[in-house]
Automatic annotation (TrEMBL):
Ranges where the Methylamine utilisation protein MauE domain occurs: 6-131
Annotated signal peptide: none
GO-annotated cellular components: membrane
Organism (species): Pedobacter steynii
Biological process per Gene Ontology, one example term: methylamine metabolic process
Membrane spanning residue stretches: 6-28, 48-66, 72-96, 116-133
Membrane topology, from the record: Multi-pass membrane protein
Pfam families the record matches: MauE
Compartment(s) where it occurs, according to its Swiss-Prot or TrEMBL record: Membrane
Swiss-Prot/TrEMBL keywords: Membrane, Transmembrane, Transmembrane helix
Protein name: Methylamine utilisation protein MauE domain-containing protein
Top-rank lineage group of the source organism: Bacteria
Length: 137
């Protein structure tokens, strides 16, 4: 069975998600900076992440656009989504001393539990993309 159409669909969904995440952060940069300043990690990390996160998200979206770099994009997507899911999971399960605020965009309106479900969905989608691409080699 040709699985590549499924890879294309997964890639498109991930590109849309990563592009939206990056562009919303960059369009509302001051809000994003404020959100990062209220997170549970040290402030200096937030000052780095304000540029690293949107850049990484755009880079992953770019990797997913081309067949030659799709597998790298899938692995990067999985890695970053796993990190995001662990962080959001910490907020959902009250691991932190205080609840961090959401980083903007649609996720501000969703709340932590729905945000966590969305993250898990995209993490699993990345895993499926990796499996399909690796099996097609």
């Amino acid at each position: 069975m040709n699985t590549y159409p499924f890879v294309i669909i997964i890639s498109i969904l991930l590109v849309i998600m990563w592009a939206y995440a990056a562009i919303s952060k960059l369009l509302y940069l001051s809000t994003f900076k404020e959100a990062l300043a209220t997170q549970v990690f040290p402030e200096w990390i937030g000052k780095i992440l304000v540029w690293v996160l949107p850049s990484s998200e755009l880079a992953i979206a770019g990797l997913l656009l081309f067949q030659k770099t799709q597998i790298l994009g899938m692995y990067a997507s999985f890695g970053l989504m796993l990190l995001f899911s662990l962080y959001v999971g910490g907020a959902v399960y009250n691991i932190y001393e205080r609840t961090p605020c959401a980083c903007g965009g649609l996720f501000t309106k969703l709340g932590w539990k729905k945000h966590f479900r969305v993250n898990i969905f995209f993490t699993i989608l990345s895993i499926i993309g990796i499996i399909l691409l690796e099996s097609g080699r």
